[in-house]
Amino acid sequence: MTKVILLSALLGLAVSCGKPSEKIPLYSIKAGALPSFVNDKAMPQNPNLSIDKNLVNNEYPIEIALYNDNRFYYNLPNLGSGKGTWSHKNGKLELKAKRTLFDMHIDALATDVDGKELAIQFTDRFGPNTLRMLNINLE
Fold first, then answer.
1. Which of 38, 78, 85, 97 is the S-S candidate for 66 at Cβ 3.0 to 4.6 Å?
2. Greatest CA separation found in the chain?
3. Does residue 15 fall inside a structural domain?
């Protein structure tokens, strides 16, 4: 019984010492802001994230490139890459893709009033998550 109590106390301490989640302010994305992060071309057969505009979070890690034909390419270094579709509805971007093990649903919202910086929201095996994204290869 003492071992169970000690183990529970240590587990509680470990959980409480975790990094507190950052509260990220979220705003609607206006249609006029889309050219800031949407590539002005249809998605190529083999997207090149070294030259195309893309959104990146290296800590998670995830890379997303949006194209003007409402398709997107994603790369999850831990899970692989793929393609999906996106739409701009109700002030947010809705990204959807089918994967073998799960369907991907990501919402993107602005983190600034001008809509130039984005964060994505999704749920993974650890629960709900919000990540700030960096805009890469902007013109």
1. 38
2. 64
3. no
pLDDT 10s digits, 87-127: 999 999 999 999 888 899 999 999 999 888 999 999 988 89
- Does residue 14 lie within any of the structural domains? no
In a domain? residue 5: no
In a 3-state reduction of DSSP, which class is residue 125? coil
Q: Enter the pTM of the model.
A: 0.82
- Give yes or no for a cis peptide into 44 (omega within 30° of 0): no
H-helix segments, 1-104: 2-16
Q: Which two tokens stand for residue 138?
A: 């902007």
Contact 62, 131 (CB under 8 A): yes
**Considering only CA atoms, which of 95, 69, 73 is closest in space to residue 83?**
73
